[in-house]
From TrEMBL:
Protein name: Heme-degrading monooxygenase HmoA
InterPro entries named in the record: ABM_dom, Dimeric_a/b-barrel
Domain ABM, chain residue ranges per copy: 5-93
Record PROSITE patterns: ABM (PS51725)
Source domain of life: Bacteria
Organism the protein comes from: Kutzneria buriramensis
Keywords associated with the record: Monooxygenase, Oxidoreductase
Stretches that traverse the bilayer: none
Phylogenetic lineage: Bacteria, Bacillati, Actinomycetota, Actinomycetes, Pseudonocardiales
Length: 104
């Protein structure tokens, strides 16, 4: 199995800002996925908390993610999303095992 470094962001948006946050996230998303160490990212909306989103991105390794995290591209990406955010947190992890689903 190939090692994957995973980042999970919990994003809290200002009341009513969710649709604009989603639109801008889609518009600026290639600034993340164009990075050579990125393996893709996903945006999820919480079904339990209004205005809460989770972003998961997978990376080849932690140094590749940290390189992106400290890049001008990441700063520009964050600045475009910042007006819609009221708070959040980040968790990082290494995928240890993966059990793929069997096709039905």
């Amino acid at each position: 199995m190939t090692t994957t470094f995973r980042v999970m962001l919990r994003i809290e948006t200002h009341p009513g800002a969710g649709p604009d946050f989603e639109r801008v996230w889609l518009e600026v998303g290639t600034s993340v996925t164009d990075h050579p160490a990125n393996r893709g990212q996903w945006l999820q909306r919480s079904t339990e908390e209004d205005g809460v989103y989770y972003i998961i991105s997978d990376w080849t390794d932690e140094p590749g993610f940290r390189e992106f995290e400290h890049s001008d591209g990441h700063v520009a990406h964050r600045q475009k999303l910042h007006p819609y955010r009221s708070g959040g947190s980040m968790a990082t992890m290494t995928v240890v095992h993966h059990l793929p689903a069997v096709a039905a």
